[in-house]
Design a protein that fits this description.
mainly beta, 1 helix, Cysteine Rich Protein, elongated, 5 strands
């Protein structure tokens, strides 16, 4: 069972321009963003920063879609 906090609510930036502190890319209107510790960040950058589950069989982190390379063998 995971004890991590639920993911913050993501929304689409409409009038905000700036730089994502996690990915250092420009945030433009239309980008999917969320607040992380008071800073506006890209949703994709935030997801890359989060720990992924570990496969109980091979102990490697699973892919973002939940798949593991050891399942193909």
């Amino acid at each position: 069972m995971s004890t991590s906090a639920p993911a913050p609510v993501a929304f689409t930036a409409s009038h905000w321009h700036g730089t994502c502190p996690l990915g250092f890319d420009t945030i433009r209107p239309g980008d999917v963003v969320q607040y992380d510790d008071g800073a506006l960040v890209h949703r994709a950058c935030w997801q890359r920063e989060q720990p992924r589950p570990v496969c109980p069989k091979c102990f490697m982190q699973t892919a973002l879609n939940g798949a593991c390379g050891c399942e193909d063998q």
